[in-house]
Amino acid sequence: MAGKTFPWVLTASVPWADGPQYTRGTHDGLPLLSYGCAPRAKLATYRQLRAMGLRPNGQDPVAVLYVRHNASGKTSFASLYLIEKAAPVRPMTPAKWTALAKANLARRICRICGKDPLYVLPTSTGLCWPCFAAETAVSDTVDCGTADDWAEAA
């Protein structure tokens, strides 16, 4: 079953080129480009900018990239930004590193024993594995009585 088709349209003006360009129409008011058609030297997705050590710098997206996945038939959309308007990523300050270290440490402290097991604890329990095993063993144990109780009942 085929998905929606996006026909080629001659777009009068686009921010990344001087003259008209062929696009796949518009999506949310922005030019739509199919996979492999975006000029890699001028446009990049957010993740591509981060890989280059850049950030969008507050600019709005200038185009939308779409990718159709053959196996699932789904279509994904990604915003494209101008590389020339991107700015370098802000460096981490000592205060940011300290805050990040405290946040990561808080994810590793067991709420029962208060120890750091040197791994990130599951968010569902907040317990290290020994405490989790001890807590579930106590709650899963059912008092069935002794063999003498069973003999007397019979």
Descriptive overview:
The protein has 154 residues and is α+β, with helices and mostly antiparallel strands. The protein folds into 2 domains: 9-88, no CATH class; 94-141. The protein has 4 helices and 9 strands. The protein has helices at 46-51, 94-106, 129-140, 147-153, and strands spanning 9-11, 21-23, 26-27, 30-34, 43-44, 54-55, 63-68, 75-82, 87-88. It has a 5-stranded mixed β-sheet. Strand 3 (26-27) and strand 4 form a beta hairpin. It is elongated and about 95 Å long. The model has no long low-confidence stretch (mean pLDDT 87).
From the spread of the alpha carbons, the general shape counts as: elongated
Largest sheet: 5 strands, mixed
Number of helices: 4
Sheet/helix structural class: alpha+beta
Features:
154 residues; elongated; 4 helices; 21% strand; 5-stranded mixed β-sheet; alpha+beta; two-stranded antiparallel sheet; 25% helix
Could you provide a short overview of the structure?
Helices cover 25% and strands 21% of the residues. It has 4 helices and 9 strands.
Secondary structure topology:
Blueprint: E1 9-11, E2 21-23, E3 26-27, E4 30-34, E5 43-44, H1 46-51, E6 54-55, E7 63-68, E8 75-82, E9 87-88, H2 94-106, H3 129-140, H4 147-153
Parallel strand pairs: 4-7
Antiparallel strand pairs: 1-2, 3-4, 5-8, 6-9, 7-8
InterPro entries: QRL_CxxC_CxxC (IPR048142)
